[in-house]
Design brief:
Layout (H helix, E strand, L loop, with lengths): L3 E5 L3 H13 L3 E5 L2 H11 L3 E5 L7 H11 L4 E6 L4 H9 L4 E4 L4 H16 L1 H5 L8 E2 L2 E2 L3 H13 L6 E4 L6 H10 L8 E5 L5 H9 L16 H4 L4 E5 L6 H13 L1 E2 L8 E2 L3 E6 L3 H6 L5 H7 L2 E4 L9 H17 L5 E2 L1 H9 L5 H15 L4 E2 L6 H12 L20 H10 L3 H15 L4 H8 L3 H18 L1
Parallel strand pairs: 1-2, 1-3, 3-4, 4-5, 8-13, 8-14, 9-10, 10-13, 15-16
Antiparallel strand pairs: 6-7, 11-12
């Protein structure tokens, strides 16, 4: 059955051109010159794909798109906008558009966008539910907090689109995991996923890494190289730490996004590639634009669908869930006997602010697994440096007393997620001090003098504290 596309375009010459391109590609086309006519045709025929110019004589195209999606939520809307109205395209993508085309665009770009929309429709049910969202795991992510549930739902939604995605978040929050998840549930999942860290490559080599080069094109080019953009043809190119890219290369990346063509260093002619761009940064991209370090026009090209990954400290008990899953993997890899975390370790993990996020947690846990073997990870197995940092963090905060009821005194908003998790774990500064000292003593095989040197305390201070703790226990009994 031949698919019929609805084209809403008020410029007669452009309408004829687009209609001819689509008919040549094997589609039937219903044409409308106004928003009113387009809506009438849609209600009558319930098209699956609509090509919609955002500048119409009788109504704003964004308003029409909203009405169309309200009538048929699964509809694929491909918006058409002028080169100077990229912010309108961004608004359309956020409003539910499948893709956008910026005038002038070539035949291949138009046909490819329509075909991608139809392919997505055929696999929509499979892609919307890659797994139960309520599950702890989601395409490489671990965690069941509300913050992560929102991330999972957003990934499930935008994965089906062809729009560029801009991921932000602190270092260690899983930006590449996010990009890989978006690729995995897209209609490009059978194509390559090519990650490139823009901050890890010298500026003078980055252009070659992105676009490739020919043999002999510069000193040291002893062989031709396929760049990341060509390697990702038919799939997804992930540009991590995009704000580290120098301004000259930003200009070339913008041209690539506008034309879908690449020109390797030393090549005489450009070539077409079909690539979806996902980028990420741990900086504030808006501030980078304001500071003149990132092109504003490139920012709007890339920042079509933003995704922000929350820090681990704001994800409730996710730190414990991540630790449990990772422990099972590390124990298997290291051939160790670990099956869980002690209660004290769980409390410390829940209360820690994790400035390095998930990456830091995994580092702490692997260190403990490599150096020890038992059924449970206990505090004595955690690096003293980690526990010392935890104590320092808590000592530097003026946290309120734990209230009798959670409704009496919520965690102050300016103190972040660390105080919230600290209150939830019901662990006091005195308790943590005791945990740290006892864990350090255990780490040094019961030697109080060695533990004291590590903690920068006098042995007599530790002996006095331990006597007080024993008296507290005797008094309780």
């Amino acid at each position: 059955m031949v698919e019929t596309i609805l084209l809403v375009e008020d410029t007669p010459s452009l309408q004829m051109v687009y209609e001819a391109i689509l008919q040549k590609a094997g589609f039937d086309v219903d044409c409308a010159n106004t928003a009113a006519e387009g809506l009438k045709l849609f209600v009558a025929h319930r098209h699956n794909v609509v090509l919609l110019d955002l500048l119409l004589p009788d109504r704003d195209g964004l308003d029409l798109m909203a009405d169309l999606l309200a009538e048929k939520p699964e509809l694929k809307v491909i918006v058409i906008t002028a080169n100077g109205s990229i912010n309108r395209a961004v608004s359309a993508m956020r409003g539910g558009a499948f893709d956008f085309l910026v005038k002038p665009f070539d035949d291949q770009r138009l046909v490819s966008s329509v075909r991608n929309a139809l392919t997505d429709l055929k696999t929509r049910e499979k892609q919307i539910h890659p797994m139960e969202i309520s599950d702890t795991r989601f395409h490489g992510f671990i965690g069941s907090s509300e913050a992560m549930q929102a991330v999972y739902k957003k990934i499930s939604s935008i994965g089906r689109s062809t729009a560029t995605v801009f991921i932000t978040g602190e270092s260690g929050t899983g930006k590449e995991v996010c990009a890989d998840a978006i690729h995995a549930i897209s209609n490009r999942s059978n194509g390559p996923f090519v990650p490139l860290n823009c901050g890890a490559i010298p500026a003078d080599l980055l252009e070659s890494e992105v676009f490739g080069h020919l043999k002999g094109s510069f000193t040291g080019a002893i062989y031709s190289k396929i760049g990341a953009a060509a390697a990702a043809d038919g799939g997804t190119l992930f540009l991590d730490e995009i704000c580290e890219m120098d301004m000259a290369l930003q200009t070339k990346l913008l041209r690539f996004l506008q034309t879908s063509t690449i020109q390797p260093v030393g090549a005489a002619t450009p070539r077409k590639v079909d690539v979806r761009i996902i980028c990420a940064t741990n900086r504030d991209p808006v501030k980078e634009v304001e500071a003149g370090r990132f092109r504003e026009d490139l920012f709007y090209r890339l920042h079509v669908v933003p995704v922000h990954l929350p820090p681990l400290r704001s994800r409730g008990q996710d730190a414990i869930e991540v630790a449990r899953v990772a422990l099972a993997r590390f124990a298997k890899e290291e051939d160790k006997s670990f099956i869980g975390l002690s209660r004290d370790v769980q409390r410390v993990f829940a209360a820690h602010p994790w400035p390095g996020n998930v990456r830091q947690l995994l580092n702490v846990l692997r260190n403990a697994v490599v150096l020890n073997d038992a059924e449970l990870i206990d505090l004595s197995m955690l690096a003293p440096e980690f526990l010392s940092a935890m104590t320092t963090h808590m000592a530097g905060r003026k946290s309120p007393p734990i209230p009798a009821s959670e409704d009496v005194l919520p965690a102050p908003s300016d103190q972040g997620g660390a105080i919230e998790t600290l209150l939830a774990s019901q662990i006091s500064m005195a308790e943590l001090e005791r945990i740290l000292i006892e864990a350090t003593i255990a780490r040094y095989n019961g030697s109080v003098p060695r533990a004291a040197r590590h903690l920068d305390l006098s042995p007599s201070t530790i002996y006095r504290k331990r006597d007080a703790w024993r008296q507290d226990v005797t008094g309780d009994e």
